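User: Good morning. I'm curious how 2'-deoxycytidine-5'-monophosphate would be positioned relative to this chain. Could you predict the structure with it bound?
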Amino acid sequence: MSPPIVAIDGPAAAGKGTLARRLAAALGLPYLDTGLLYRATGRRVLDAGGVPSDPAAAAAAAMALRPADLERADLRVPPVDAAAAAVASIPAVRAALLDFQRSFGAERGAVLDGRDIGTVIFPGAPAKLFVTASLAERARRRWLELKAKGVAAALDAVEADMAARDAADAARAAAPLRPADDAVTIDTTDKTADQAFDAALAVVRERLARAGYA
Ligand code: DC
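Assistant: Good morning! Here's the predicted structure, ligand included:
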């Protein structure tokens, strides 16, 4: 039996990252935030003076990615948000990052969060969650995060930007954001982080047990 994979997908600021990290700790599994792979790829293209939407430059950056690139402190800034979204729509980039994600989970199992974990990277994962929240609530959370970092932004502008990124993630031809047929949806709009975690852990434990994992 292959080691357990927990796939967590959903739109930006739905609470996936916090949830996935806590699930990984509770289950004793390694955790990978796959958004960092796209962010680090976009960062590399920008650092090299390239254009993130250029397929050749983006694919070269994805192939050159090293684990240390994921540790950089400058991956969650607006220019990298845009660069990551641009490289993520390029099929050659997604192909270059596929092996990294699959081998991450191969040895001990893993919790991975992203947009296509349950649909493309690990379609056979025994436990899949689709974590979502209303656009207004996700925009509010992102705005609070920015405020905490000392970045002044208008809530309307944050919401408009998020709506545009949602539309791009869902409309792209390469691995569009959508729930896997066998994913359980968790809507965190009206849940505290603890409530979302309790609901997610119950679903994941039940799915893993059903698939024969102790
Ligand atoms: O989750 P995030 O905001 O860190 O993701 C950064 C970008 O990468 C975002 O535009 C969505 C994209 N992404 C993706 O296409 N597939 C993934 N598995 C993870 C992220």
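The radius of gyration is 17 Å. The mean pLDDT is 94.
Let me know if you'd like a different ligand tried.
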